[in-house]
Design goal:
Number of domains: 1
Strand content: under 5%
Radius of gyration: 12 Å
Strand order of the largest sheet: 1-2
Shape: globular
Largest sheet: 2 strands, antiparallel
Order of helices and strands: HEEHHH
Structural class: mainly alpha
Number of strands: 2
C-alpha cells in the first residue's frame, strides 16, 4: 500500500469514527447532520487526484445528503465504496 493509499484509508476511517459512536452500538453521535457529514466527506477529495477517487467521494457525499436514505447506513455503505477506490 502506498503512502497516499494509507492516508486515504485513514481519512475514511477517521470520518466514520468522527460520526459514529463505537461505544454506543455505532449509532450516530449527537449533533450529526447530513450536511455536516457530507462536508467532512467532501474534504477527503483532497487526498486523491484520480477520477475514481473523486467519484467515490462524490457518491458517498450524495448518499449521505439523500433524504430518502438512512443516514447511518449511507455513512457506512459509502465508506465501503470509498475504501475500494482508495
Amino acid at each position: 500500500m502506498t503512502k497516499m493509499e494509507t492516508l486515504r484509508m485513514a481519512g475514511i476511517q477517521g470520518t466514520v469514527a468522527r460520526w459514529l459512536n463505537a461505544d454506543a452500538d455505532h449509532m450516530l453521535v449527537a449533533g450529526a447532520t447530513r450536511d455536516g457529514i457530507a462536508f467532512t466527506i467532501n474534504g477527503l477529495a483532497a487526498l486523491g487526484r484520480s477520477p475514481r477517487w473523486k467519484l467515490a467521494i462524490t457518491r458517498w457525499a450524495d448518499m449521505v445528503t439523500d433524504d430518502q436514505s438512512d443516514l447511518r447506513w449511507a455513512l457506512l455503505q459509502g465508506s465501503v465504496g470509498a475504501t475500494h477506490a482508495a
